[in-house]
């Protein structure tokens, strides 16, 4: 009876968590497509958005110099091998480290400072918009950390370096 009661409580808790996640997803969708306190809206290929918002492709953002640069991590022989990873060091972000607009540093892999110096691309900086595009696709987060002075990206993640404060 006790175990059945515990199982029932766990099942109810799981249902509450599922409903909470659905509510959060709906609220986030509403916030990202409608904003806050907007009165006038326009139809776009993404749906209805506030009248004063604009929709651009990544290429248009690059062409109009809103994005300064974009780059994913190292491919080929410079890519760290399993034996290169360590508990501490320079974070090496993969697609699995970005979830729900959050970068999960606590579980990410790390490489040595020396190895990070030898990597030619994929050095992310604060303010970069990170987008996953292999394995886990479409997760986005803004890199903001004071803990690490250097962060490297895997080929699964691309940074988009925003020029100025034109993109919110």
Please provide a brief summary of the model.
With 168 residues, this protein is of the alpha+beta class.
Question: What are the main properties of this structure?
Answer:
168 residues; alpha+beta; 4-stranded antiparallel sheet; 4-stranded mixed sheet; 3 helices; flat
Cα-to-Cα separation, first versus last residue = 54 Å
Number of strands: 12
Q: Compute the average pLDDT.
A: 88
Q: What's the helix-strand series?
A: HEEHEEEEEHEEEEE
Strand content: 25-35%
Biggest pleated-sheet summary:
4 strands, antiparallel
Please give the oligomerization state of what you see: single chain
Rounded to an integer, what's the Rg over CA atoms?
A: 20 Å
**Numbering strands along the chain, what is their spatial order in the largest sheet?**
3-12-9-10
What's the shape?
flat
The unreliable regions are none
What percent of residues adopt helix (DSSP H or I)? Answer: 25-40%
SS-derived structural category: alpha+beta
Count of helix runs: 3
What report would you give on this structure?
The protein is α+β, with helices and mostly antiparallel strands. It has three helices and twelve strands. The strands form four sheets. The chain has a four-stranded antiparallel β-sheet. It has a four-stranded mixed β-sheet with strand order 7-4-11-8. The model has no long low-confidence stretch (mean pLDDT 88).
Secondary-structure blueprint of this entry?
Elements: H1 2-34, E1 41-44, E2 47-50, H2 58-63, E3 67-72, E4 90-93, E5 98-99, E6 102-103, E7 109-111, H3 113-118, E8 123-124, E9 129-134, E10 136-142, E11 151-153, E12 157-162
Parallel strand pairs: 4-11
Antiparallel strand pairs: 1-2, 3-12, 4-7, 5-6, 8-11, 9-10, 9-12
